[in-house]
């Protein structure tokens, strides 16, 4: 008998019909004799609707109160799913994050799980009940409701699987696995049978929202067997694995990730003296703004241009800070661009192959796509380009690195 944690995302519980279908599926697993813990998201669109409501009252809602509100989305679906199971004579019980006691820190809207009390869950499983837990939420030491950041139900699923030492954590969603790139953007994208934790971590952090990054971190750290599957179609899905050996046989690049979440800021004509990077980025970091990519160019006249990217939500804040810095250090001007996109190629195979970056640049050059910034690490190369070329770039790279489904190759 296995213990399985199954997480169903927003579209999979997006209507009463789908919740009934999920109940049928859970029932089938139960009948095989497995112990099941189910984690559900809010119905699709619900979290956005709740956030919009809050924004109608306040531009910047107090994070504690926002968490009280957005956590209600998941409270609805756990109850509905428990009802649908009980109706089918499957004993079931639902719990919110705080009822389980999923203890988190107090960083409202992006809290981290610190500890999970598994006693209540284990007692229910022992009594033959399916346990349905609200994703995305927890409670801090003071009893305040917290949430784990967008997509956080994935992390609830993996964390519960780790705490319960489950045999597998299954992430059910609206695609049948992890693809070489977002299948909604590139129709030739291929499902991967396996991907390493390391690669999945890069894909998630570079923009593939199929798994929340913290879920992948957690799974890697506690060695939780993790699989992404389609909620309503049979199939093996994609296994996230520690095993790098086998994926070495695979192509150099495992996947392509992208995001439109960043904006670029440039400060020009900065006197080129030691400590200049610190003078520019120190105040940005003091304002609690995270910087992603950084480029510094030196001009002939002993001045330098300095460009960096931040999350688009932080763009205006960062611009204000930078204007102030520019005045202080006597820089010529500050400019910015929010219409950029970051495209990244990811693969552990890069470690053993040279020339991957230049192959990427060649493919983009052939499409006349200008590269504005570049950053690399051991298993990824990222470039910033104009946002309007994003889809073209992803498709071109998908073909150049021979990731297209065989039927489409050479088209
Ligand atoms: P859920 O609501 O089930 O959590 P999400 O919308 O968060 O679902 O994640 C699933 C979506 O992730 C897919 O519909 C797909 O468009 C997107 N996605 C992005 N990159 C990938 C990828 N490499 N493989 C599969 N899906 C991806
Ligand atoms: N409902 C939350 C969100 O939309 C959490 C999740 O779906 O994972 O972000
Ligand atoms: Mg998700």
From TrEMBL:
Domain of life: Bacteria
InterPro entries the record matches: AceGlu_kinase-like_sf (IPR036393), ACT-like_dom_sf (IPR045865), ACT_Aspartokinase (IPR054352), ACT_dom (IPR002912), AKii-LysC-BS (IPR041740), Asp/Glu/Uridylate_kinase (IPR001048), Asp_kin_monofn (IPR005260), Asp_kinase (IPR001341)
Binding site for ATP: 7-10, 173-174, 179, 184, 209-210
Database matches in Gene3D superfamilies: Acetylglutamate kinase-like, VC0802-like
Binding site for substrate: 47, 74
The enzyme's E.C. designation: 2.7.2.4
Biochemical pathway: Amino-acid biosynthesis; L-lysine biosynthesis via DAP pathway; (S)-tetrahydrodipicolinate from L-aspartate: step 1/4; Amino-acid biosynthesis; L-threonine biosynthesis; L-threonine from L-aspartate: step 1/5; Amino-acid biosynthesis; L-methionine biosynthesis via de novo pathway; L-homoserine from L-aspartate: step 1/3
Catalyzed chemical reaction(s): L-aspartate + ATP = 4-phospho-L-aspartate + ADP
SUPFAM superfamilies assigned: ACT-like, Carbamate kinase-like
Any one GO MF annotation of this record: ATP binding
GO biological process, one term: lysine biosynthetic process via diaminopimelate
Gene Ontology cellular component terms for the protein in this record: cytosol
Coiled-coil segments on the chain, per record: none
Entry keyword set: Amino-acid biosynthesis, ATP-binding, Kinase, Lysine biosynthesis, Nucleotide-binding, Transferase
Pfam families membership: AA_kinase, ACT, ACT_9
Residues of the ACT domain: 265-348
Protein family membership: Belongs to the aspartokinase family.
Name of the protein: Aspartokinase
Organism from which the protein derives: Pseudomonas mangiferae
């Amino acid at each position: 008998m296995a213990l399985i944690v199954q997480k169903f995302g927003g579209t999979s519980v997006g209507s009463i019909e789908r919740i009934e279908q999920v109940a049928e599926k859970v029932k089938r697993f139960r009948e095989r004799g497995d112990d099941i813990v189910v984690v559900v998201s809010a119905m699709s669109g619900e979290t956005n609707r709740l956030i919009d409501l809050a924004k109608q009252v306040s531009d910047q809602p107090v994070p504690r109160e926002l968490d009280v509100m957005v956590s209600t989305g998941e409270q609805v679906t756990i109850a509905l799913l428990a009802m649908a199971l009980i109706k089918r004579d499957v004993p079931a019980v639902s719990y919110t994050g705080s009822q389980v006691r999923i203890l988190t820190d107090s960083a409202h809207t992006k809290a981290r799980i610190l500890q999970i009390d598994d006693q209540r869950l284990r007692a229910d499983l022992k009594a033959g009940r399916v346990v349905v837990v609200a994703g995305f939420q927890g409670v801090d030491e003071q009893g305040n409701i917290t949430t784990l950041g967008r997509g956080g139900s994935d992390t609830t699923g993996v964390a519960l699987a780790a705490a319960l030492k489950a045999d597998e954590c299954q992430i059910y969603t609206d695609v049948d696995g992890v693809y070489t790139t977002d299948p909604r953007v590139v129709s030739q994208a291929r499902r991967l049978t396996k991907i390493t934790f390391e690669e999945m971590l890069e894909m998630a952090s570079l923009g593939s929202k199929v798994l929340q990054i913290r879920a992948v971190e957690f799974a890697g750290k506690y060695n939780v067997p993790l699989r992404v599957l389609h909620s309503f179609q049979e199939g093996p899905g994609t296994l996230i694995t520690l095993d790098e050996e086998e994926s070495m046989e695979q192509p150099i690049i495992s996947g392509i990730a992208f995001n439109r979440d960043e904006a670029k800021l440039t400060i020009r004509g900065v006197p080129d003296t030691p400590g200049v990077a610190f003078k520019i980025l120190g105040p940005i970091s003091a304002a609690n703004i995270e910087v992603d990519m950084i480029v510094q160019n030196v001009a002939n006249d002993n001045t330098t241009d300095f460009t960096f990217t931040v999350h688009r939500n932080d763009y205006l804040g960062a611009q204000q800070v930078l204007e102030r810095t520019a005045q202080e250090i006597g820089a010529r001007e500050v400019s910015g661009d929010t219409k950029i996109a970051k495209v990244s190629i990811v693969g552990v195979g890069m470690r053993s192959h040279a020339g991957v970056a230049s192959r990427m640049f060649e493919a983009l050059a052939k499409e006349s796509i200008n590269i504005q910034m570049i950053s690399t690490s051991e298993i990824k190369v990222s470039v910033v380009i104009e946002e309007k070329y994003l889809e073209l770039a992803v498709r071109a790279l998908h073909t150049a690195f021979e990731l297209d489904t065989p039927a489409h190759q050479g088209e």
